[in-house]
Amino acid sequence: MSKNETYFKTNKATWNEKVKVHSKSEMYDLEAFKNGKSSLMPYELNALGDVKGKSLLHLQCHFGQDTLSWSRLGAKCTGVDLSDEGISLAKSLNTELKLNAEFVCCNVLDTSQFVNDTFDIVFTSYGVIGWLPDLKPWGKMIAERLKNGGAFYMVEFHPIVWMFDYLEGKPLMRYGYMQDEVIYEEYEGTYADENSSMISKEYAWNHGMGEIITALTDAGLHIDYLKEHNESPYNVLPDLTKNSRGMYETKDKLYPLIFELKATKV
């Protein structure tokens, strides 16, 4: 087993445990979701607009809330995730809510081995690419799964955010913006429930903006736009303050917290 396969195995075990914790958490608010609340945030809703009748592939979908939210808006959705616990819950929710999404359990880099269809939209969001050691195969897979003229859209935490270690309750700059070495963290709890007794064991990688864009353009995608924002829809970092729009930001606003990128297969 290669080093990366060992890392993926550890991450999968952690995400299987996270599904159990997150599905009961206030952050994911599963009951409200079942009763019709969308889990999608303003950025992605504004970016993709009317998805009715469009096919949509959701990469790294966790237990499917966003996938099923797109499905409720009329998209024909397929969700992919590494966690079999996550995919199992997603399938169960799909059945319970009488939606028509499909879910596939696999490493996102292997998507093309398990999903043959091409899509109008490929979508991914919030805390996803850091689990991947190399973005070149990721970009190639996205291009393979998009129809000609199809759109790839991602909204993600900014690479600058991952230069910091947050485990001591405040951001300490510890990691390189373009660091090649894997980052290992082990801590109690999870971003959705800091009081959980679960132990998160995680291997992750930092990817700068240049690497992200180059992985997509090398695969043949045209970058439509890149937007950076000082605010995040999620209160997942220490000492963020809530602004008038209900978003969270750092007190000094010295660096962006998230970015949006949209690209087209030409």
From TrEMBL:
A GO molecular-function descriptor: S-adenosylmethionine-dependent methyltransferase activity
Alphabetized UniProt keyword annotations: Methyltransferase, Transferase
Domain (Methyltransferase type) ranges: 58-153
One BP annotation, GO: methylation
Protein's UniProt name: Class I SAM-dependent methyltransferase
Signal peptide: none
